[in-house]
């Protein structure tokens, strides 16, 4: 996929304490700002193995091979269930029948539940 790293590679690269940059602290209680590389933008993720996080954070910890394999299996199962439900006319979020779909901007929603189904790609004119 255009040189993107494999799912396995991506999962092995994240510190297990990372909980998203919308939080000020990771699950280990470390402030993201304290371990961010000062030579990068404020929006860069500090908790990547390939960003040398372990050199800046004593709490950096990465998943084991078995944990990565389990995460991969869970992700593949969720994607499979999502697509299967969608193909059967069920909302992938709540599994209620989809009576109709509506696109708002680039997002598509299922109704009557209103859950977001994904992004609609516009065809080139």
Q: Please, could you describe this protein's structure?
A:
The chain is α+β, with helices and mostly antiparallel strands and 125 residues long. The chain has two domains: 1-78, no CATH class; 89-125, no CATH class. The protein contains four helices and three strands; from the N terminus they run ααααβββ. It has helices spanning 7-13, 32-35, 53-56, 65-87, and strands at 100-104, 107-111, 116-119. It has a three-stranded antiparallel beta sheet, with no helix packed on it. Strand 2 (107-111) and strand 3 (116-119) form a beta hairpin. Helix 1 crosses helix 4 (65-87). The model has no long low-confidence stretch (mean pLDDT 89).
What are the defining features of this structure?
about 120 residues, alpha+beta, three-stranded antiparallel beta sheet, elongated
Secondary structure layout plus pairing:
Blueprint: H1 7-13, H2 32-35, H3 53-56, H4 65-87, E1 100-104, E2 107-111, E3 116-119
Antiparallel strand pairs: 1-2, 2-3
Helix pairs in contact: 1-4
């Amino acid at each position: 996929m255009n040189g993107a790293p494999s799912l396995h590679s991506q999962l092995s690269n994240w510190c297990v304490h990372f909980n998203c940059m919308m939080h000020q602290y990771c699950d280990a209680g470390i402030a993201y700002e304290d371990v961010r590389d000062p030579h990068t933008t404020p929006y860069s993720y500090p908790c990547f193995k390939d960003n040398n996080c372990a050199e800046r954070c004593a709490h950096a910890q990465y998943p084991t091979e078995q944990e990565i394999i389990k995460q991969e299996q869970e992700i593949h199962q969720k994607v499979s269930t999502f697509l299967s439900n969608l193909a059967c006319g069920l909302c992938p979020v709540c599994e209620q029948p989809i009576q109709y779909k509506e696109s708002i901007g680039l997002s598509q929603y299922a109704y009557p539940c209103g859950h977001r189904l994904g992004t609609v790609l516009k065809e080139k004119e």
